[in-house]
Amino acid sequence: MEWDKIWSINKSILDPVTPRYTTIGKENAAHLTIENGPEAIEGRSVFLHAKKEDLGSKVVFYGRNILLEGDDAKTMVEGEKITLMQWGNCTISKITKDAEGKIHITGKIDEADKDFKKTKKVTWLLNDPNTIMEIEIKEYAHLITKPKIEADDDPAEVFNKNSQSTEIAYAEGCVR
């Protein structure tokens, strides 16, 4: 059996029963200031899985200063409307980079705008040390570098010697 089929089987078993939590990579995190966001931090209850309400709920914290994945931020342009997952549509008004190359974005949220069809969907976290925590994420790549091993393949060239990577990330505090 090929590895992509094994991954597909695993996904079909795990996806329907796995709660959803948000993490943002620390090293490349971008900052988004929501100009019209709540002055005081507020928490709202949301389901752990949009399609499986029986998995329970968690609190998502909202405020003016949030973190985005740097790779998502790199693709954004001024004037673009994006969707902040579990919040609403946000129009980007300004994008800058600081001396260290970190991306800083300014935008306005419009929770009444429910047209999510043609927008970039972006996960985010409130940038608040009281509601997020740092975690270590270990990611595992394929152990075998090709879909199917043949009898004449050299094992040294087929097996991935660097199949594990580690990253420090911010996570919502409820993962504790």
Can you walk me through this structure?
The chain has 176 residues and is mainly β. The chain has a single domain, classed as Ribosomal Protein L25, Chain P. The protein contains three helices and twelve strands; from the N terminus they run αβββββαββββββαβ. The strands form three sheets. A seven-stranded mixed sheet has the order 9-6-7-8-2-5-10. The longest helix is centred in the first third of the chain and has 12 residues, at 3-14. It starts with a helix and ends with a strand.
How is the secondary structure organized here?
Layout: H1 3-14, E1 23-25, E2 30-34, E3 42-47, E4 57-62, E5 65-68, H2 70-74, E6 81-84, E7 88-97, E8 103-110, E9 120-122, E10 124-126, E11 132-140, H3 155-158, E12 164-172
Parallel strand pairs: 2-8, 6-9
Antiparallel strand pairs: 1-12, 2-5, 3-4, 5-10, 6-7, 7-8, 11-12
User: How many individual domains?
Assistant: 1
Low-confidence stretches: none
Distance between the termini: 37 Å
Largest sheet features: 7 strands, mixed
Helix content: 10-25%
Percent strand equals: 35-45%
Quaternary class? single chain
Please state how the strands of the largest beta sheet are arranged side by side.
Answer: 9-6-7-8-2-5-10
CATH topology: Ribosomal Protein L25, Chain P
Tell me the name of the CATH homologous superfamily: Ribosomal Protein L25, Chain P
CATH class: Mainly Beta
User: How many strand elements?
Assistant: 12
Structural class: mainly beta
- Round the mean pLDDT to the nearest integer and report it: 93
Order of helices and strands: HEEEEEHEEEEEEHE
Radius of gyration based on Cα positions: 19 Å
Number of helices: 3
